[in-house]
Amino acid sequence: MEPDVSIETSSMIRVAVVPIAGIPPQLFRDYAAMLLRHHTVSLSSISSFYTEHQKSPFSNQPWESGSLRFKFMLGGSPPSPWEDFQSNRKILALIGICHCPSSPDLRSVAAQFAAASKTYSSALVYRCFAFCPGDSQLEEESKLVLFPPADRQTQEFHLQTMVQDIAASLLMEFEKYVLQAESGGTILKTPLDSQATLSSEEVIKAKKRRLGRAQKTIGDYCLLAGSPVDANAHYSTALELARLTGDFFWYAGAMEGSVCALLIDRMGQKDPVLEEEVKYRYKSVIMHYKKSFIQENAQRVSPLSFELEATLKLARFLCRRELAKEVVDLLTAAADGAKSLIDASDRLIVYVEIARLFGLLGYQRKAAFFSRQVAQLYLQQDNKLAAISAMQVLAMTTKAYRVQSRASSEPFNDAGQTHVDGGKMHHHSIVSLFESQWSTLQMVVLREILLSAVRSGDPLAAWSAAARLLRSYYPLITPAGQNGLASALANSAERLPLGTRCGDPALPFIRLHSFPLRSSQMDIVKRNPAREDWWVGSAPTGPFIYTPFSKGESSHSNKQELIWVVGEAVQVLVELANPCGFEVMVDSIYLSVHSENFDAFPVSVNLPPNSSKVITLSGIPTKEGPVAIPGCVVHCFGVITEHFFKDVENQLIGATQGLVLSDPFRSCGAAKLKSVYVPNISVVPPLPLLVSHVVGGDGSVILYEGEIRDVWISLANASTVPVEQAHISLSGKNQDSVVSIDSETLKSALPLNPGAEVMIPVTLKAWQLGMMDLDAAGSKGVPTGKQVKDGSSPMLLIHYAGPVTKSGDAETVSVLPPGRRLVIPLNVCVLRGLSFVKARLLSMEIPAHVGETYPKLVQVKSEGAEKLDSTERQADRFVKIDPYRGSWGLRFLELELSNRTDIIFETSVSVDMEIPDDKESLPLCNCAEFGSPKTRIDRDYTARVLIPLEDFKLPVLDGSFLVKGSQTNGTARGRTSSFSEKSIKAELDASIKNLISRIKVRWQSGRNSSGELNIKDAIQDALQTSVMDVLLPDPLTFGFRLAKTSSDNSVKLDSPKNSDMETNYHVSGGSIVAHEMTPMEVLVRNNTKEIIKIGLNVICKDVAGENCVEGDKATVLWEGVLTGISMEVPPLQEIRHIFSLYFLIPGEYTMLAAAVIDDANEVLRARARANSLDEPIFCRGPPFHVQVNGTS
Amino acid sequence: MIVCVAVVGHQNNPLYIQSFTEADDALKLHHIVHCSLDVVDERVNNPKRSGPTLNETYLGVLYPTENYKVYGYLTNTKVKLIMVTTDLDVRDADVRNFYRGFHAAYVNAVSNPFHVPGKKITSKTFAEKVSTIVKSFG
User: Fold this and answer.
1) One Pfam family, short name please (chain B) (predicted)?
2) What are the boundaries of each domain within chain A?
3) Cβ-based contacts under 8 A for chains A and B
């Protein structure tokens, strides 16, 4: 059996080409390649070398169109036992090739060639070609054919001539042989013929056969000589004779020859008729080979190989898509027959041929199947060369089984285009994913490759096979098997030189995790060349994450682009997974960048069994330009491999579709990751880089609520480029806590050269903690710096940029280098300082002394006097209670403050004095400032601070306040009050606010922290509840005084001025003596706008609180009416009632006036909060003190 | 006797492959099924041959190999149903009948809303049904 057989093989002259005298193998291959090109020599070209010595037996030789074919056997081949049967198996010529410079002694070359010639006894022509002879060698006389040194073209021409010469010589030899054979005498035998001595009958038969065989051989030679017609004639004779003698084997041989002759004759034509003819004849060839099977020889020799060869020849002849079925049938038959072949190498050849033919037919899987059979046969041979062959054959099958090595299949074609087709997969990858499910077959193939590679001593191939096996089929391999593969990898790596690269990645699986955002310290901002404030629009401004106005801008494209700066380290996060049961030690892993403008830093990682890890890979861009990161370079298991992200991505996609066995990341418990979009990365030239730190430590500044403090921020230029522009702005929450930024300092420091530093003062005021914060702090017990994390701190944004133009590069002016943004979070940790517990409005009634003047009441309505009064009091630092003036309705705002911190606070309360700008609504209160006294609040203590708010009632109890818009609410009386309260509130609020805004609680703690307590809301809440009582006057007010004269009974107090004058007049006198009639008057003022009918009662109580006017033990006698005085008080008027008291006992008495209002209207009811109509409305005045002196 | 049945997806990915022999020849049968895809591909891609049998899902004998005969059936979603039998002399009608049942079983299996198209068929019911059909064959 021989490989590469076809029907035409019978017409080829076999020429052995052997190296002579130590020619270097590479040169031999070169020279042989030159020779191989002359496999066909046309008859017309050799006619000049041909001389007809005698009449040629090839009478029908087509000198015009015919040709001789050569089959060069490089390295020669041993003689075949079948060469008598098929003359084309004979080595008919021998060509030696030698290289003169490597073997200077031409004589020894000639000797060696002669020695080589002896092994080729069947050869008819011997030539030895000597290339590149020296000048001395050229002169030497020798039998060698010398090719003088010349250019290749000349040499080739020279060679062609020599081959034509050989062809002519061969032709002449063939003629000689044929003439000799025709005359008879040669005995042609095959191994098939019986070796035993022939019986007489058989001798006769053998003689007859000899003729036929001779004819067949002559036919062979005719065919070799390129004369198919002559050959055909001889073959016909041979067929006839062989048929008669029953020499089936030779019959089949002659038939084969005749088919070959037919094909040579009809060179190039392929009509169906010819095809049918060939098919028909070959069927008969195969049949006759089958017939020639002789049982007794079966153990030794069998014509089976010829039968198979004929089958394969026919299959090759027919091998076309359209005839696939027939070819498949033939090949299947051949494969079946191959099993009974004795010689293993024959079987190997049959399988090789079958595999090739299936491959030609497009049956890749079948081809792979038979290739695997071939490999198995090779592996049976158990030697290194066979193992290498097995490995190579298996390598060819990997494509059909979709387990090919990446190095062989697609040499780095996807390295550059990772970005181009980002999301979508190659068709190829999809198909390979689908077909990768024949895992049973694939694993077998890979195992065999591994085995053969180990046997053939090819560590790299072994490594690659083990890597592919482990990476693709780890879920199907037991832990023990995985360990075995790991050790196979390690063993192979030991035999490999350090730093060997392999195309097939092993473990771990690597996928891109994310590109971490540049730290806010180094943000890059594109500059808008059209604007002075180029940073605007680069980052979202305002409270909204999304604004429709910024949508149209270039923010979209910003997201896809990543800008790296030359010389600044960047980081990429990748996730590694080791789904196997052994520990993977990655000696080094770094980003693989093919654009050569990136220095990647290797790191080493240890991956425990069944684990995944996210690691940071970093590097430094070195040159401007785009950067593509297709994967990682990994040094693991002793070999360097490149892992492409896209492979894993495809695999993960496959895993989701159920095409791939498993997702290595998921099986390791890694979180599910959406596929990462790989942005376009570009590297820009160096940019300035500001580095900031807060002077005194970058930790957060701890401030108590309301504290004000200066912070110094130092900015340094850490790059090689000066900062030429800078702008400071604020962002984040609590922006108002930044009181001032000295941006002028920064401006004046520009340009900030590399290495320079500037300090900027920033004034901060701590904000108020919200309720949530308070709760959180309260529940945790310790107010830690947690608040910083939640981003409640404001941030300073500094946009800065380097020089606009690069030196000497005028054209790039339009392309501005980007600017940068530095975000300095002002880490303010606000601690709860003094906490406000509650505010209460306390009212105090200090009884006034009954004198000759009325107490200063609200109704005293002189603006001028009021102002005078207030300014007068402004000077006072303390509350002074004028005993004669009385201070009923004096109110205090009590603030309860507690100190939960561990420091001591000192607080001071002040009410800022301002001239009220609204005249009416806010009657000015008694605003005293309490600047100097400080209240010290120790830790864990609570203190109360009083703020006096003197009487600031409205002058008139106007129905409009209460019953606004409810004149017709007779039906809904019950709700009147609530309505009216609501309506009044709005009007009151303004006045309350005004008041509140002037109350300030300042605190100080230690030497350098001080601040202000923000308790406005609390005060407001406190005031709001009792707003009615605070602001609304009672409907009636009462006052007592000593009557001047008893005569003027009912003088109306017409003007306040009078009253003032009277006050001044009577201020010194007015002491009451016991046992003396004391005229007194009670004054009732109506604060409403309607007449009020009342029944007035005056009561006098002694110190013990007993009524001393009535009863048995009355100590006071009276004149006039004290009870049930009914009177009508006109609106906004006063009425006096005069009476006299006679005190029996000196001491202190209290006068009280009270009234029952008759026929109260709605306003009064609302004010009194009366619920029902029948309820009597009482009105009670403040107590007045009367000091009665003894008579002594 | 049927020794092996297989369902192969339209991208030539195996969806179900089951052998019914005692011997440990799963690998060999895998190879046979895998190789038979060549023939199916060839029939599908060769329009001249498939012309008259365009709507025929039954592909007939794909190829005889060793002691086996391989039959093919192509659904209109390009899913291949492959059957390997040791009976060298089988009536075509029987095979067609077998495929009718096999196809129905496959359709039922993939009609399961929890079945992901393209994934291997893991349904036990399908496996039982197929083995019943296989046992009743011939």
Assistant:
1) Sedlin_N
2) 7-182, 363-403+435-498, 509-541+558-684, 690-831, 839-850+890-1031, 1036-1189
3) 62
